[in-house]
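Justification of resources, computational component.

The compute hours requested in this renewal are based largely on the per-chain cost of generating structure records like the one below. Each record pairs the submitted sequence with a full structure-token output. That output is archived, and it is also reused by downstream analysis tasks.
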Amino acid sequence: MMISNNDRRWMRLMKVGHYLGCHQIPERSFAYKGYQFPVCARCTGVFASFPLSVYCSVKKNLSPGTCLRMCSVMLTDWLLQYLDIKQSNNSRRLITGFIGGLGFNTLYLRGSASLIKKFTKSAREGQEESLNEKEK
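The structure output for this chain reads:
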């Protein structure tokens, strides 16, 4: 039996989704032309929110508290489903994933930028001290 190029591409994408940590449950994933998305609906929302997160982290429109509240929206939806209080659906998972992803990704990007600034500042200060000692 021959495997088509589309099937090979889909299998590679499914491996990527798995390595990204998604459970890939078919009932909780969207499908397109008979192919399941490589990540579930909630992860699709998280990844789809990334470009807007870049914008928000640069413009600094969202406070850390707001970002954490956005993350709690996704956590609440997951928890309600996990505790069998309310069953979620893929549309809700996508929306809460987008909101939670926006908050998480914005925090992540800001934290990364802050660490980079801190380490590059320390490196520059170390270089300046070294140059000052050589001048003496």
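Residues 5-115 form one domain. The longest strand covers residues 31-32.
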